Amino acid sequence: MTAPARSLTPDPVLVNGVDTRALMATVNAIKDDPGLGACRFRARNTWLSGNHNRSVVTGFFGARQEIAHAQTFTMDADEPAILAGHDQGANPVEHLLHALASCLTTSLVAHAAVRGIEVEELESELEGDIDLRGFLGLDPTVPRGYTAIRVAFRAKGTTENLARLRELAEFSPVFNTLSQGTRVDVTVQAK
Amino acid sequence: MTAPARSLTPDPVLVNGVDTRALMATVNAIKDDPGLGACRFRARNTWLSGNHNRSVVTGFFGARQEIAHAQTFTMDADEPAILAGHDQGANPVEHLLHALASCLTTSLVAHAAVRGIEVEELESELEGDIDLRGFLGLDPTVPRGYTAIRVAFRAKGTTENLARLRELAEFSPVFNTLSQGTRVDVTVQAK
User: Fold this and answer.
1) Chain B residues near residue A40 by CB distance under 8 angstroms
2) CB B185 within 8 A of CB A175
3) pLDDT tens-digit map of B5-20
């Protein structure tokens, strides 16, 4: 008899559908070599016409190397008719809510997984306030961005586990970027 | 002879593909009644499994009414294999770059249109820095969100027009939200 075939990679250890063994391997690699944690995420956008434009994401830099995504991601943005668009995509401030929702959700689920906290179901509703007078330049005292965003999660799991979820939201990169702000440099050059 | 047929709505006046007559009608309506500018944008997100989740956007509140989008927008987020996902969508911090790119682009194009500044082509490349040690909780002194985002636009148009574009970026709601930060309230309740 021959020995049973063995995979070169260990079996996944799934908690909440997250391969915690793979995730902890990444964590330990960065612990041993902190420089591996530095990432550069990227997107390219092309204006199509009017308020319609499209972004493409193909890969990023992390763990000291260029990493290609398994597929190219394409995302369209537009505006509704009342904002002079043709509704061919969610608008940019709605995409921002998606970025926040998805990041909070991933952060809750992944951090719960490595702590052994099982989550059965998780959904959220987001709502954010913007006064268009800011964007339209009608009143310089009116903020141009969101002045508040509310995120209401509903989760299924044991009471003890649910009580531990809220604090895990604090790890979310998008939540932290929005809460604390970040430096954004914009340049315009001739093509 | 009968008079020529007249549309009930005025013909669009397109600059950069933006119906500036419709946009100015919105601007003037809000000028006359500032309360019309208050908007609430929304998204709903459902966790699917692991790092994969999905947002749906169907409508928003604006001009003192609920406004449905012409279609339902669905956006998936996931993570690449190195971050314990299956690459079934751009990841949340990449979606954030798309939100920023699309908002800056729309703001430049629309504000240029109402000023009569013609833009022929516009594209952008975005890059943002995140150190995963923050998200992973390995070092409390490392920020968890983006520490810097760079946006490089390339535009085609007259030299005079291009020189005026950069300042129009300042109107972008997502740019302002990221630059200045906003309040984000997160709650978790049992389902």
Assistant:
1) 127-130
2) no
3) 555 566 788 999 999 9
